[in-house]
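Quick start: read one record
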Amino acid sequence: MTDKAKASREKVLLNDESFSYLFFEGSSSQNPIIFFHATGLNAATYLNLLTKIFEDFDGERSIYAFDQRGHGLSAAKADHTKLKSWKQFSKEAISFLNSLDHKSVDLIGHSMGGIVASEVASQLKLKVKNLIMLEPVLYYAPKDVIKLKLKNFLKFGDLSASNKSSSAKQRRNNFASFKQAVEHFTGRAMFASWPEESIINYLEGGLVKKEGSFFLSCDPAWEAKTFQTVTFDTYRFLTKATCSVLIIRGDKETSTFTEEAKNALLNKDKILIEEHKGSHFLPIEDIELVSSRVFDFLLKD
């Protein structure tokens, strides 16, 4: 962990399995911020963004950043043959929140984490005050969702989830040193737009040393299965949530927030949609922009 980070690494037992999270301890114990990461990433990946948000609130707001099963430094068993849907992640996110025992929280999530956060908000209505979804995997049109589910079941068609799954399966997962891992990912594929510090944070929070070598804690097979089990009808979580919602969308074609979802949600009460210059990794590429929008949106209360 970098020196500037004000986060401690903590563990929690959920159903007798060990999960890891980062904790920024604020001066107030009221209404903390809970953050959920994207598929294949981990809490530490977002240290720059979370540190900036913590500083924007002058160290008053506590922040928890949870490592999902099969990701980061969580030790819970991750058998990819048993992963059926993202409900696994949402269920454990709710268990994590319940273990913290706060009366109210604000939720932030990136990509898959945005969907996890929205499902949590739809189920814990009285506890969640605000929801911020950064580049969420958000589909809308019901008839298209049915087609997507069928194509995915039949392994047919050129689904973006299938393409990402294939890329994840091929991800290198064995390095002689930490330095070699950093050099390997810098400037490559989805990491091309990342600052080097964020790549280092990602690897510090997502590499484990075994038998003298370094391996990604999010095994490529687990990451691939997570992409394959994407929840297509994610729009339904927002129809049940009662809190204020901010959706931040990148303007690049890599965005997973579809136009159908955007158009359908534009006029919904309590839902604010913004589009900014950037890719699917906007919260890593532009922490100044994202942190300022998070601060302004949460400060309104």
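Residues 221 and 284 are 24 Å apart (CA to CA).
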